[in-house]
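Dear colleague,

Thank you for sharing your sequence with our group. We've completed the structure prediction you requested, and as agreed, I am returning the results in plain text so they can be pasted directly into your records. Please verify that the sequence below matches your submission; if there's any discrepancy, let me know and we will rerun it promptly.
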Amino acid sequence: MRQLLFIPGPVTVSERVLAAMNRPLIDHRGPKFSELVERIYARLRPIFGTQEAEIVLLGASGTGGLEAAIANAFSPGDTLLAAPMGAFGERMIAIARKYGMTVDALEARPGFAVDPREFAQRLNDDTEHRYRGILLTHNETSTGVQSDMGELAAIAQAHGALTIVDSVSGLGATDFRMDEWGYDIVAGASQKVLAAPPGVAMLAISPRAWNAIEASKTPRFYFDLVKAREFARQGQMPWTSPVSTMFALDVALEQYEHEGAPAIHRRLATYAEAIRAAFAALGLEVFSQPGAHSVTVVTAKIPDGVDAAGLLRGLQEERGVTLAGGQLDLKGKILRMGTMGDISQTDVLAAIGAIEIALLGYGVPVRVGAAGKAALSVFLNLGGATPGDGQKSSAQMDAQTTGTSR
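Please find the predicted structure tokens below.
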């Protein structure tokens, strides 16, 4: 049975990306690898929205990139402000505390993004500038929430603390303007919107952040960003590089470039809207709140009387649809459906149909066919067609919104 992967990462990757991993390995200290790295840097710059920052690649997950950023930018005893919106924001706090930093948390309400007024007030109250750094999450897959990073940037800049942004599940999904907004370190990873296999973390680091990194007193070795920069300038990575994953990332970025950021942003937003419409038709309450909806993952509350683990297991084993459940306090209470990766409108509709059948099996009162109709109406009206395009076939719509034929 073919599996449709709708978790928030890793995601389904295209056949071309998978095939790239089968290439013969090359010397990770040789000229061909350097050319590969330089090409990846060039393709990442517009996605980060930077010409000023230096980009370093690490053989790690997104969490490894965030640990590197926090450990290198600050020192034990520093006080930071974090604005978590869910489990991954809490993870950044845990990393900082593990390295001996003090963290004050401005917790968002469940399902909501960071409140700009509360954020501004907390920073305005810091008249003595105790906060050496600010930890922000662009997109929180545990709750299906994303923040307005442009609005938060202006507030953070007024304070002056060094900013680290977890954009692991947000980078490439919406417009990001690192230079314009003044963020200092932005972290991404290969296995989310960029639709490559896991294994490469990427950090874009501003000149101001490099000054902080050089002054940091935190012990580090594998994640020493000064060493990573030294090798990056030679087109290398400091330790043994994940060469096969780098091949795949290069092809994934080529595909991203070919489809174009605006089309990808539109595709993800349309998929997310279609899924929310389908959930509403199924009677599922979307967990994220209006104005804070993520475009890369949609979250919904599990209906009363439905066993979350059993629902997800049945979808995977009986229907070939893999969704994610809740984390931490939301375990057993929500389901999460991702929009990223090499998936088509047809795949989305198939997954929605599978969810409908599974809920009927639990006795949930569902209007048969309503969810698929709701999603399809979004695709037909908001699927990226420009005025005058006229009616398109299903295959044309799939190709238009995925950038690939299936």
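Summary note from our side: The first helix runs from residue 15 to 20.

Kind regards,
the structure core
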